[in-house]
Design goal:
The complex is a heterodimer of chains A (113) and B (112).
Chain A: E1 4-7, E2 10-13, E3 19-25, E4 31-38, E5 42-51, E6 54-57, E7 64-70, E8 73-78, E9 87-94, E10 103-104, E11 108-112
Parallel strand pairs in A: 2-11
Antiparallel strand pairs in A: 1-3, 3-8, 4-5, 4-9, 5-6, 7-8, 9-10, 9-11
Chain B: E1 4-7, E2 10-14, E3 19-25, E4 30-38, E5 44-51, E6 56-59, E7 62-67, E8 72-77, E9 86-94, E10 100-102, E11 106-111
Parallel strand pairs in B: 2-11
Antiparallel strand pairs in B: 1-3, 3-8, 4-5, 4-9, 6-7, 7-8, 9-10, 9-11
The chains are: A mainly beta (113), B mainly beta (112).
Chain lengths: 113, 112
């Protein structure tokens, strides 16, 4: 398996609490992504990063923020979790934006009560 | 807005059959098309990547084709095995950005 991990793997939290999900890679890849996967919607991009401190919004970025202070770590923060953010979150990485496949982490199942 | 459609949504076949999964996309301005496999409760595993200038890619029993002008791709699985049971996802990397646009997948069940 490609060297990309996510933590935690499962989390249950309450509405209104902040939540941070971590993605860690050991491949020194430049590009990293956060997706969410929901029944009926498939996978949708939340935010992505094209380098340290360089990030941009994806299709469903409202309510989420990201940070990348080191090449290997990409953090996704829900400032005030809502029930609509209950989902499975996947992190991915790629060496190049347009020619390389994206390698996905194992996912984090987040439940917001 | 790019849309990716996968047909059928589910497919059941007996072991040993050859099968084809279909993927269509609405905007032909893509960098590449990728096929992934997802097992229940797991992440995505990359199967094949076809660049926009290529027509097909092969890996073992898998062959993927791309017809960019018609907005179609197929994933051919030869001599299916129970271990091939999974959800297969098609995704395109479009020219407008760096995001993969995913279809909703085809869930394949191969019975022994």
């Amino acid at each position: 398996d490609a060297g990309i991990t996510q933590s935690p793997r499962h989390k249950v939290t309450e509405t209104g609490t902040p939540v941070t999900l971590r993605c860690h890679q050991t491949e020194n890849h430049r590009y990293m992504y956060w997706y969410r996967q929901d029944p009926g919607h498939g996978l949708r991009l939340i935010h992505y990063s094209y380098g340290v401190k360089d990030t941009d919004k994806g299709e469903v970025s409202d309510g989420y923020s990201v940070s990348r202070s080191k090449t290997e770590d990409f953090l996704l923060t829900l400032e005030s979790a809502t029930s609509s953010q209950t989902s499975v979150y996947f992190c991915a990485m790629a060496a190049a934006a347009h020619t390389d496949t994206q390698y996905f982490g194992p996912g984090t199942r987040l439940t917001v009560l | 807005k790019q849309e990716v459609t996968q047909i059928p949504a589910a497919l059941s076949v007996p072991e040993g059959e050859n099968l084809v999964l279909n993927c269509s996309f609405t905007d032909s301005a893509i960098y590449n098309l990728q096929w992934f496999r997802q097992d229940p409760g797991k992440g995505l595993t990359s199967l094949l990547l076809i660049q926009s200038s290529q027509r097909e890619q092969t890996s073992g029993r898998l062959n993927a084709s791309l017809d960019k002008s018609s907005g179609r791709s197929t994933l051919y699985i030869a001599a299916s095995q129970p271990g091939d049971s999974a959800t297969y996802l098609c995704a395109v990397l479009e020219g407008a950005g760096t995001a993969l646009i995913f279809g909703k997948g085809t869930t394949l069940s191969v019975s022994s």
